Amino acid sequence: MNKWIKYLMMVVMALVMSVGVNAAETADALLRKAAAAVNGAGGLTASFTLDYGQQKVTGTLKASGKKFVLQTSSVSTWYDGKSMWTYNARNNETTLMTPTTQEVNEANPLSIVNTYSASFVAAFAKSQIKGCRTIVLTPKSKQSGYKSVHVTIPDGSAFPSKLVVIPASGQKVTVSISQVKSGQKLPDQTFVYPRSKYPKAEIVDLR
After folding, report:
1. Is 98 helix (H, G, I), strand (E, B) or coil?
2. How far apart are the C-alpha atoms of 159 and 31, rounded to whole Å?
3. pLDDT for 137-154, tens place per residue?
């Protein structure tokens, strides 16, 4: 009898481990579909709401592959795949830099979906909301700057509807994405800082 109990326990353990592996693979597959949808959209536009602390900011996003432009009432960021410009309306100043992958992700959390496999391990969240799937990204390195990133993808869609970024230190940031339109024709100039629009802005070159 003891041998049968031990055998059954081994079978149960093997099944549990198998479920864990399959869940991780499924989470990876879902994120790969999300990345393919974002990159393969040709170009997309969306509205977003950014919540951090007691502050809430709304804005628009335009993206094509790795390129993007984010615009709010106070801060706007353009990234052409190499250079990043950030305009601050409060001091009429524009910062120009060649960003790292982490700096790109901080400016546009949706970029994390494109680059997650290099820096994160994906698994489904233990608690799920009906009508969507939430994936938890856990950093592979303690030096990543993140505790975790939660990506929510509605059923029947490949586009993330919400990202919750929890940094290693600092305030949690929640990005809610809505009104996504794909297949947009966005010229390359869309993602380059429009100097003529801000003729009096001081440009701080940090490259």
Report:
1. coil
2. 9
3. 998 887 788 889 999 999
